Amino acid sequence: MKRTCALIAAAVLVAGCGGGQTATTEPEEGGAPGKVTLEWWHLSTSDPLKTIYETRAKEYQAANPNITVKMTVLENEAYKAKLTTLTQSGKAPDVFATWGGGVLKQQVDAGLIKDISADVDLTNFTTASMAAYQFDGKTYALPTDIGMVGFWYNKKHFEKAGIAEPPTTWTGFLDAVKKLKAAGITPIALAGKEKWPGHYYWAYLAMRIAGLPALQQAGTDHDFTKPEFVQAGQQLKALVDLEPFQRGFLGAGYSTPDGQSASVANGKATMELMGQWAPTVQADSGEGLGEDLGFFPFPEVEGGKGAITEAFGGGGGMALGADAPKEALDFLKFLTSTENHTKAVESGAVLPVLKGVESAVKDENLKVVAESLASATGFQLYLDQAYPPAVGAEVNDSVAELFAGAKTPEQVAQDITEVAKSESE
Amino acid sequence: MTTVTRRPEAETLPAGPRRRRRRGRPRNRLTIALFVLPALALFLLLVVAPILVAGYASAFRWNGFGGLPTDFIGFGNFTRLFASDIFYTDLGNLLLLIVATLVIQLPFALGIAMLLHQRIRGRALYRLVFFAPYVLSEVITGVLFSLILSPENGIANQLLGPLGLESEWLSHPDSALWSIFVVMTWKYFGFHMMIYLAGRQNIPNELIEAAKIDGAAGWKIFRYVTLPLLGPTIRISVFLSVIYTIQLFDLVWILTEGGPAHASETLAVTMFTLGFERAQVGYASAISVVMFGLSLVFALAYQRLVMRRDLEGATTAMGGKR
């Protein structure tokens, strides 16, 4: 019996891969509108967005009685795993949340995503918010959120350590870390177990040292061994060598009760490098800092080619499965309409992707994020989304090993290059 | 366990007549075929077919999308696997966990089982308590222990701190794998304890008494009477442990995701990350094939070399030869 289990375990992988292309049931053509069920997958498991989306689905069903919106809501990692399994079986939900970039591109290449270029009016969407969903001049998704990564910090801690202003240079940042340590405060919280929060550091350093064009070029020529990329690793190592992170950070999660977010929210650590959702998650996983929470952009590295005004981040969007009924497009337009987007922005859960909605941002810190984003001179999508999945995962993995002291900056550059090259063959 | 209990009666059955009867009349065979068919179909569909597909996929560079793979690379995935450091880390971790299980976990379970075989007050309660963790799902166990072993707020450090035995547990490359072993032991020693207890109860008391009359005592009785008679039980429990360790996934995934820096990664974790995070399904299939091979070789070799004696009775009684 146990041996059977062994066989099944070894075969589990394959279970996710079998099967071919199966179309979802098409609605009846012509005549009275047939009954249509829209499969809608998203990952907003926490309020306010969770409730907002539920309300949207109800409103839409009320206005279109022949349509049923069936929601599948999963947490981040579970969502990725379930979506990967489904797409590998040759299917996609009718409407589903995506981060765009390399992952979406792979799904587009597999013929799973509807090309909506001809059906949507993009004039109102900001350029930065659309970047992740357009390939070769075609549009494959509409954005619902856009933001950037930066340092969220505890103002009280800065005061206590005698740091007057948030640092704008890397040297200044390292000094601030030293001052915080000297004051007996843990400077930075990091979720080492989950890897993606760590890759923000390397990506930002690469942007600041090698410059945006170099990073984008590496995406096409698959060469991450340029000296600037190694330097990014060396600067990161300089930070790691200061031992600025909370105890046991290598095994810490992000939104767990003792994770990165909770450490900052409960005042145990001062800073975290995180995206626009950080305040929401902090309030959810810990006490929340309220007025004491501040935001500053990732500092400039002296002598580097990048500027402090260049932003790294991403948002979220909704794509349509290739076999989705035509009603799915209508639903997508409904979700991203100015009226509905404004409501979502007002709730503080997302940042504007539509021009003219900026004033709906209420929170002071989020205003700073929105303004930095609006005045950004360049934009880079998360590396683990911008590049193909294998390359993105290798960036996360290698950088995590740099944090653990198991890889040198040179090895990090080498290993990412190796995977990028082998993926492009 | 089943083999152990079945053996004595099986041996008493005469082999000859059964064998003849099994050949049976044609109508009988049809009935047999009809009864076997549904199970056989399921077995082929859910067990054999996936193995074949995994074997097939392992010869391709394939991201899992769209129909069948096309980019044939022969043994390319295997060459790549055998050249990767993570594969050897996985094998090293596997070996360490197996050795630790055999040297620490199973003897511990055996010791507890022998204690609980004695007439002691509340032994039913002890048995229940020690067996309880086995009933929990792996995921629940994992979540539970990630809270217990949290370096900052975990109860483990709060209890051990005053004794100077604090550890970063799952968060440090040096201690992660051992921490996982501790959790594994907590969850599974009760199961092995139960097997041993059952095996011990099958040993007739007369033998122990006879040994006592012959002047043996304590350790000697255990070493020369109990232990040899527990042989079949121990061999089965070793078998189950090793196969479990080769496939180990859930606990590790929940506790560490294989980290920090691959320190606690297992073959199954590598397979999962390659297949479902990196979309390298062909490469991941190659790992699953290696895992299958390891399990198969071990299972066959072990049954042939180690468990032969235990199985002989059962199989001859059924009229077949191995």
Going by helix content, strand content and strand pairing, the class of chain B is mainly alpha
Please identify which CATH superfamily of chain B we are dealing with. Answer: MetI-like
CATH topology category name of the largest domain in chain A:
D-Maltodextrin-Binding Protein, domain 2
β-strand number of chain A? 12
| Number of helical stretches of at least 4 residues of chain A | 18
Spatial gap, N to C terminus of chain A: 42 Å
**DSSP strand content of chain A:** 5-15%
Computed Rg of chain A: 22 Å
Organism (chain A): Nonomuraea harbinensis
Keywords (chain A): Signal
Signal peptide (chain A): 1-23
Pfam family, one (chain A): SBP_bac_1
Write the layout of secondary structure elements.
The complex is a heterodimer of chains A (425) and B (322).
Chain A: H1 2-15, E1 36-42, H2 49-63, E2 67-73, H3 76-88, E3 95-98, H4 101-109, H5 127-130, E4 134-135, E5 138-139, E6 141-148, E7 150-154, H6 155-160, H7 170-182, E8 186-188, H8 196-210, H9 212-221, H10 227-241, H11 260-265, E9 269-274, H12 278-285, E10 293-296, E11 310-320, H13 327-335, H14 338-346, H15 364-374, E12 378-381, H16 383-386, H17 389-403, H18 409-424
Parallel strand pairs in A: 1-2, 1-3, 8-9, 11-12
Antiparallel strand pairs in A: 3-11, 4-5, 6-11, 7-9, 7-10
Helix pairs in contact in A: 8-9, 8-10, 8-17, 10-18, 17-18
Chain B: H1 2-12, H2 15-23, H3 26-57, E1 60-61, E2 71-72, H4 76-82, H5 85-117, H6 123-135, H7 138-148, H8 155-160, H9 176-201, H10 205-213, H11 218-247, H12 250-255, H13 267-277, H14 281-306, H15 308-317
Helix pairs in contact in B: 1-15, 3-14, 4-14, 5-9, 5-11, 6-9, 9-11, 11-14, 13-14, 14-15
Q: What distinguishing features does this structure have?
A:
heterodimer, A: alpha/beta, D-Maltodextrin-Binding Protein, domain 2, 6-stranded mixed sheet, 4-stranded mixed sheet, 15% strand, globular, disordered N terminus, B: 322 residues, mainly alpha, 75% helix, SBP (chain A), Extracellular solute-binding protein (chain A), Bact_solute-bd_prot1 (chain A), signal (chain A), transport (chain B)
